[in-house]
Design a protein that fits this description.
Layout (H helix, E strand, L loop, with lengths): L10 H7 L40 H14 L3 E5 L2 H12 L5 E5 L4 H11 L5 E5 L4 H7 L4 E7 L11 H10 L3 E5 L4 H4 L9 E5 L13 E5 L2 H14 L5 H11 L2 H20 L4 E5 L9 H7 L6 E6 L3 H10 L4 E2 L9 E3 L11 H6 L6 E5 L5 H20 L1
Parallel strand pairs: 2-3, 2-4, 4-5, 5-6, 10-11
Antiparallel strand pairs: 1-7, 6-7, 8-9, 9-12, 11-12
Bound molecules: pyridoxal-5'-phosphate.
Length: 395
């Protein structure tokens, strides 16, 4: 089987076949795990394309090639984690004295890296409400180099208007970077909307089974790709062959899984919105979401993440989470199994309480990663847990 022309095939086909032709040596249908740190050279400096697994490995190449096709990019680079992708990207593209504008509702670890680790190196990162393009435009300075956006955001599922950000970036010659972890390439293709670089925590929907940590960068531009490739090798935050293989195996079913995540999330969001134990539900696929129209315009689907404010405060949120039987209390998201977490105490605990509250990460906010279990089972589980919240409120 020769390499597929990505323009001639649909997403689900590419996820299974792109850069994953049967092994020409043995006929193995599945890309082997090239569990080797080094490769024989035919002569000093002469090899078959691989010399050392930090620099490159055939299993990782298959994953990188497939991801590039799925995001509509020309290059993809994989990392040992999403934060490995972020740190490598940051060191490759920015230097002391640069200014970066970043959304104020990004993943807590992204905030922590920019605020606590990168800033002391002399890079000024400013956090701005990216749902307000007017504000973002005002904050651009002569030394601004990039807009760093995440949409839908974590955990509040706010949407950033990607095309509006790209327009601002283009008029000031800035690089746009989009963390596409929540939507996955199945539901959102930033490169087609003019974004320069896509970042993923492949730990989430792309891997899809909560069994491997990884990250990826996908882009079209050759010059940036070269700088990133150099830093990927120089910094060494690369995934090992088995992690690459697990991620590639998960990726094969991304289309199927995303459809199931979305169907389950929509049905749960609609159900919870009517429940008296709930103050509000945040889900981009609900007409009550303030950016429902934008979601329909820029996304190809609404995804599997829900944020819910239960009636009450921390006690009620704890009761809700503890009463759920099918949702495991755990950080992370995007696996086949449903998870629940408390952003203020868990994923976003590294953000100072006053900042957290100001951006809406309140004590009654619970984030749900809706899995692909049976929809009615999930609904029954959520119903009984919300009934316990109501009972507590009456005490
Ligand atoms: C939106 C988003 N971006 C980036 C990351 C960081 O990825 P990783 O945990 O793979 O380093 C996460 C992790 O939760 C995330 O949710």
């Amino acid at each position: 089987m020769t390499e597929l022309d990505p323009k001639a095939y649909q997403f689900a086909t590419l996820a299974i076949h792109s850069h994953q032709a049967p092994d020409p040596e043995t006929g193995a249908v599945i890309t082997p795990i090239y569990q080797t740190s080094t490769f024989e050279q035919q002569d000093a400096g002469k090899h078959k394309g691989y010399d050392y697994s930090r620099s490159g490995n055939p299993t990782r190449s298959a994953l990188e090639g497939c991801l590039a096709d799925l995001e509509g990019g020309h290059h993809a680079l994989c990392f040992a984690s999403g934060l490995g992708a972020l740190t490598t990207l940051s060191m490759a593209l920015f230097k002391p004295g640069d200014h970066i504008l970043c959304g104020d509702d990004v993943y807590g670890g992204t905030y922590r890296f920019f605020d606590k680790v990168f800033r002391p190196y002399g890079i000024d990162v400013e956090f701005v409400d990216f749902t307000r393009p007017d504000l973002v435009r005002q904050r651009v300075r002569p030394n601004t180099k990039a807009l760093y956006l995440e949409t839908p955001t974590n955990p509040l599922l706010k949407l950033v208007d990607i095309e509006a950000m790209v327009a601002i970036a283009k008029s000031h010659k800035l690089i746009t970077i989009l963390d596409n972890t929540f939507a996955s390439p199945y539901f959102q293709r930033g490169l087609a909307l003019g974004v320069d670089i896509i970042l993923h925590s492949t730990t989430k929907y792309i891997g899809g089974h909560s069994d491997v940590v990884g990250g990826a960068l996908i882009l079209k531009d050759d010059t940036h790709a070269q700088a990133l490739r150099f830093h990927q090798n120089s910094l060494g935050a690369t995934p090992d062959p088995f992690a690459s293989w697990l991620t590639l195996r998960g990726l094969k079913t991304l289309a199927l899984r995303m459809k199931a995540h979305e169907a389950n999330a929509l049905s749960l969001a609609q159900f919870m919105e009517k429940h008296p134990g709930v103050e509000s539900v945040i889900y981009p696929g609900l007409p009550s979401h303030p950016q429902y129209d934008l979601a329909k315009r820029q996304m190809l689907g609404f995804g599997g993440m829900i944020a819910v404010r239960v009636k009450g405060g921390l006690d009620e949120a704890r009761t809700f989470m503890k009463s759920l039987k099918l949702f495991t209390l755990a950080e992370s998201l995007g696996g086949v199994e449903s998870l629940v977490e408390h952003p203020a105490l868990m994923t976003h605990a590294s953000i100072e309480p006053q900042v957290r509250n100001a951006i809406g990460i309140t004590d009654n906010l619970v984030r749900m990663s809706v899995g692909i279990e049976d929809a009615e089972d999930l609904k029954r589980d959520v119903a009984q847990a919300l009934d316990k919240v109501l009972a507590l409120a009456k005490v």
